[in-house]
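We emphasize that the prediction below concerns an isolated chain of 329 residues; any contacts that depend on oligomerization or on bound cofactors are therefore not represented. The input was used exactly as deposited, without trimming of termini.
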Amino acid sequence: MKIAGLVDLQVNGYRGVSFSDPGLTEEGFAGSCRDLSGAATSAFLPTIVTSGREVYERNLPLMARVMGREEFAGRVLGIHVEGPFISAAEGARGAHDLRHICPPDVEFLKRILEWGGGCVRMLTVAAELEGVESLIEYAVGAGVTVSLGHQMAGPEALGRAAAAGAKALTHLGNGVPAVVGRHENPIWAGLAHDGLSAMLITDGHHLPGTLIQTFVRAKGVERVNVTSDASPIAGLLPGRYDTLNNPVVLDETGRLYNPQTGYLVGSSAGMIDCMNYLAGLGLLSVEEMEQVGFYNPLRLIGMEAEAVRPMREVFYDEARGRFEFGEQL
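Result of the prediction step, given as a token string:
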């Protein structure tokens, strides 16, 4: 059964190339985008995580130039800027570099959007930060979808951020400390807010199957978006690496983590891997999986299905219960 495709709203890098690397090159970025389009997804948002000002100033224009090439039209849909306006709390910041996390700054955001050359399509911020509502309003006014993540926000802060224009929750269930209050925490608050859709990392490591089931039931299929949160280590063999300013271990199961903190550092999976883990849970029909893996992500960033131009067709093999790529188009 052919489906429309797979759209990933957060890809931090692929096969050894980090989109936040101060040494990123145009051909390195282009090669990574080609590899990803041919092996893991139909279309995606390359993501730059919390970085120093000089990295935004250098990498965003570089990425925008490459995205302007005809070969990436309909495949690289825009840039996701995750941070730097996120929580500095241990656990909540995840693998983000504490040195570069900063409070909401509309003037800095203006520069980020300028450096992105009109290609920034999504921004992740923490809802509880003082002044974040003005930043959200500016971003939304500039045509950027705002998602809330790497935060310790309660229901009141989420409500204010949503009222300012935020639409989603970046990888709900992750980007929080390992131990939180059992009744009052950002996960429950996010689940309870009907105006915020949820991005879920369904790689089999970030969230257990029972939690994915609970999230899908709470949010409803129409408010769920599957994402990979692929690390620059995605697509590489198991081993020890350094990525995103973290020492990491990629073990035989695909789990990618910092051995010093125990926290995950993105995923080693591509979008098709995440969709196949989801398929194995037996929660959704093929049509519903197509919705959470293609139509919902596009709707969240304000794009139509016709805008996607996949490199390869995507099929669902009903006999095997998994998604597969077809021949190159």
